[in-house]
């Protein structure tokens, strides 16, 4: 647990300890070049009950609340942002897959990856995922046989196997609450961003406390302390925002997501700066955190999310 995290319940603390132990035990960096490792970790998280932790028990999930899931996702994002984002998509898809119990069971088990998108970008952390497309008229499901991929350059989220997809056919219409799926997707992504911001702020503070300059630690400099306060304070605000189970309207979830993504990028950029020239070396985690934050914002398409949220907000004024 970091100093930016709000007070956790016993269950939340136990979950954080379990994930920390896993990330310590499995000391690897995710890579698109090693999809088998990504699939193995996806299945391991499923075995631990984390992958679809907050999906209702009636649908085969863990039945946890949204706050518990947010704690898990934020913690995972500190090290494995691509897997955290993929778990968010699995949660968002689950209630739309009630009419497809076989596929849903495989999602719960981590046997297959599933992407949830509003466009053509896929970051599913799987080589042959199923894809759920959320559109204005509802949601549609496409199987791997209906998908054709084009490689795309991306900054971070290594291990997400980011690609652009072309769809064959019209897919299968899904029932369920599409707006609810959007809210879960947005709030889950915000938790990923909050986790990245948390890790970046902690890294900046830790480095500044031990780095000596002008005869003392960097934290002796008021300007440095102010910058650290900005980063840690912003991370703390975002964590408090996402670690709750309150219902949210689609436009509110859009606002939370946009704010969280910008906070993550700002905190990670400050962390890189705090490390000086070392911050740009891949040996330091802050370089990866900045790349992950930038790619998460792209994966979520926050510009489109903002437009949709603004339309939803304006529509709510009509009564």
From TrEMBL:
Q: Which Pfam families does this one have? A: Acyl-CoA_dh_1, Acyl-CoA_dh_N
One GO molecular function term? acyl-CoA dehydrogenase activity
The record ties this protein, via PANTHER family, to: ACYL-COA DEHYDROGENASE, ISOVALERYL-COA DEHYDROGENASE, MITOCHONDRIAL-RELATED
Matching entries from SUPFAM superfamilies are given as: Acyl-CoA dehydrogenase C-terminal domain-like (SSF47203), Acyl-CoA dehydrogenase NM domain-like (SSF56645)
- Give the originating organism: Amycolatopsis endophytica
TM stretches of this protein: none
Cofactor(s) in the UniProt record:
FAD
Report keywords, A-Z: FAD, Flavoprotein
Q: What is this protein called?
A: Alkylation response protein AidB-like acyl-CoA dehydrogenase
Report the sequence similarity comment from the record: Belongs to the acyl-CoA dehydrogenase family.
Where the record annotates domain Acyl-CoA dehydrogenase/oxidase C-terminal, the positions are 186-297
Domain Acyl-CoA dehydrogenase/oxidase N-terminal: from-to ranges: 40-92
């Amino acid at each position: 647990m970091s100093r930016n995290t709000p007070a956790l319940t016993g269950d939340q603390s136990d979950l954080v300890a379990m994930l920390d132990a896993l990330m310590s035990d499995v000391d690897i960096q995710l890579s698109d070049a090693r999809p088998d490792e990504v699939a193995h970790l996806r299945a391991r998280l499923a075995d631990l009950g984390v992958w679809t932790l907050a999906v209702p028990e009636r649908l085969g999930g863990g039945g946890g609340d949204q706050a518990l899931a947010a704690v898990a996702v934020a913690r995972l994002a500190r090290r494995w942002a691509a897997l955290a984002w993929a778990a968010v998509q699995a949660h968002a898809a689950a209630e739309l897959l009630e009419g497809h119990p076989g596929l849903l069971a495989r999602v719960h088990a981590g046997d297959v990856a599933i992407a949830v998108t509003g466009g053509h970008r896929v970051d599913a952390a799987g080589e042959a995922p199923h894809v759920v497309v959320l559109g204005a008229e509802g949601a549609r499901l496409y199987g791997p046989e209906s998908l054709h991929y084009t490689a795309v350059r991306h900054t971070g989220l290594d291990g997400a196997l980011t690609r652009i997809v072309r769809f064959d056919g019209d897919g299968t219409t899904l029932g369920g609450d599409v707006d609810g799926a959007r809210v879960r997707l947005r709030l889950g992504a915000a938790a990923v961003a909050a986790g990245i911001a948390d890790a970046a702020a902690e890294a900046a503070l830790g480095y500044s406390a031990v780095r000596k300059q002008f005869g003392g630690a960097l934290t002796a400099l008021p300007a440095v302390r102010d910058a650290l306060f900005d980063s840690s304070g912003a991370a703390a605000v975002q964590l408090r925002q996402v670690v709750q189970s309150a219902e949210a309207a689609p436009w509110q979830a859009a606002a939370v997501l946009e704010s969280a993504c910008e906070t993550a990028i700002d905190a990670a950029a400050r962390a890189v700066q705090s490390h000086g020239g070392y911050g740009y070396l891949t040996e330091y985690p802050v370089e990866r955190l900045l790349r992950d934050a930038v790619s998460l914002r792209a994966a979520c398409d926050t510009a489109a999310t903002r437009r949709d949220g603004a339309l939803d907000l304006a529509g709510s004024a009509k009564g």
